[in-house]
Automatic annotation (TrEMBL):
Keyword flag Repressor: no
Domain GS catalytic intervals: 107-445
Keywords associated with the record: ATP-binding, Ligase, Magnesium, Metal-binding, Nucleotide-binding
InterPro entries: Gln_synt_N, Gln_synt_N_sf, Gln_synth/guanido_kin_cat_dom, Gln_synth_cat_dom, Gln_synth_gly_rich_site
Protein family (similarity comment): Belongs to the glutamine synthetase family.
Protein name as annotated: Unannotated protein
Record SUPFAM superfamilies: Glutamine synthetase, N-terminal domain, Glutamine synthetase/guanido kinase
Length: 445
């Protein structure tokens, strides 16, 4: 047993931990959990814990249901909201087949496999997400409209406000679990919050995001509120995105930085952006995986709708933030389409794969957009060579279905399940009769 596993076992004993939760996600990014007794941990580290994979969306079929969850000791953290009474902790798991090989259905494995491909090229992939979400007064019930927890706006400072108290408590919990937060503030919509996680390697960031969503929901419930990561809960207010900053490092050197180059951006960085732009429509079904995601991607309110890039341009799909001359290693790019309800393991894998494809194939970066993309006419955008992002889940799935990049990155199993699941979601949505239709058509048709 390695040193990290020994450390976990000692900590469990010293802290009197009574419940250890083993976490993993299904293909859609839903967090799954099984609690085991401390006495089972040594066996879990060496052999894993068996479970019925056929009961997990997208994992396996009934006649081959046995699967193993093997905890990753590097992900050990105490659960701070279980501070009263018997202590609890969590570890993320890798999902294995009975013979000990990685499961092709495990989203965490999909990301690890893509990170290995990057490592073979000499790169480490770092991400830094800006996570937006709404704080609501009520958990939604059928027939009810969501009610924001406050009526404030972007960067508003509210004395003794619920939102500020919520962010403070959530950040303290995250930091108690070893998850560093860089910024937090009130976002543009009433009740809308943003908390930005500090840069980390992409696998750690994905694990942190899964923890982040649960922490926010736990803190909200303690305060009599509800935290929702739905991409667009209000027609009249901004959607919740997850603008993701990315960079590649070669050892301790930022591969995106080149002193004296335009925007201090190296050829590797420019080709990475070109890869993202080329393949953005193909990966959108995963970075924006819900029917509701496309109510946000209509342009305006800092949500991109067209494939383009720009320097410090928040209307572009890819933004290159201003780099400080003295801080070359902070050079990065920002991908602005993902929403905060995505499966981060699959999303990061595809964002990395698209960028690597641009590097490997030597894609040329087109001219950047300096104008406000939302203010241009569609004719002007087309004349500038911009392509639209998919405008519905149906369009996104059609583009994804023909994508070799997405199929190769996700693997046949995850690709096929994801596609079938989302096609079924679209068909279910397509048959619904909305309140808008009733209000508009019933009185006059």
């Amino acid at each position: 047993m390695d040193r990290q596993a020994d450390f976990v076992l000692r900590t469990i004993e010293e802290r009197g931990i009574r419940f250890v939760r083993l976490w993993f996600t299904d293909v859609l990014g839903t967090l799954k959990s099984v609690a085991i007794a401390p006495a089972e941990m040594e066996g879990a580290f060496s052999e894993g814990i068996g479970f019925d994979g056929s009961a997990i969306d997208g994992f396996t079929r009934v006649y081959e249901s046995d699967m193993i969850a093997k905890p990753d000791p590097s992900t050990f953290a105490l659960l701070p909201w279980r501070s009263e009474g018997p202590g609890a902790a969590r570890l993320f798991c890798d999902i294995l087949n009975p013979d000990g090989t990685p499961s092709i259905a495990d989203p965490r494995h999909v990301l690890k496999r893509t990170l290995t491909q990057a490592a073979e090229l000499g790169y480490t992939f770092y991400t830094h997400p800006e996570v937006e979400f709404y704080l609501l007064e009520n958990r939604h019930r059928a027939g009810e409209l969501p009610v924001p927890a406050d009526l404030y706006g972007y960067f508003d400072n509210t004395p003794h406000g619920q939102s500020a108290d919520f962010r403070r408590e959530a950040i303290l919990m995250l930091e108690a679990m070893g998850i560093s937060v860089e910024f937090s503030h009130h976002e543009g919509g009433p009740g809308q919050q943003e908390i930005d996680l500090r840069y980390a390697d992409a696998l750690t960031t994905a694990d942190n995001l899964m923890t982040f969503r649960l922490v926010c929901q736990e803190v909200a419930l303690e305060q009599g509120l509800f935290a929702s990561f739905m991409p667009k809960p209000f027609r009249e207010h901004p959607g919740s995105g997850m603008h993701t900053h990315m960079s590649l490092f070669q050892g301790d050197t930022n591969a995106f930085y080149e002193e004296g180059a335009p925007l201090q951006l190296s050829k590797i960085g420019r080709s990475f952006i070109a890869g993202l732009l080329m393949h953005a429509p193909e990966i959108t079904a995963v970075t924006n995986q819900w029917v509701n995601s496309y109510k946000r991607l209509v342009g305006g309110s800092e949500a991109p709708a067209w494939v383009c890039w720009g320097h410090n341009n928040s209307s572009a799909l890819v933004r290159v933030p201003m780099a400080k001359p003295s801080k070359g290693n902070s050079t990065r790019i920002e991908f602005r389409s993902p929403d905060s309800a995505t499966n981060p393991y699959l999303a990061f894998a595809l964002m990395l794969a698209a960028g690597l494809k641009g590097i490997e194939q030597g894609y040329e970066l087109p001219a950047g957009a300096e104008e406000d993309v939302w203010a241009l006419t569609e004719t002007e955008r087309v004349a500038m060579g911009m392509k639209p992002l998919p405008t519905s889940l149906r369009q996104a799935l059609d583009v994804m279905e023909s994508s070799e990049l997405v199929r190769e990155t996700l693997g046949e199993h995850v690709f096929d399940f994801f596609l079938r699941n989302k096609q079924a979601e679209w068909e279910d949505y397509r048959s619904q009769v909305s309140q808008w239709e009733l209000d508009r058509y019933l009185p006059r048709l």
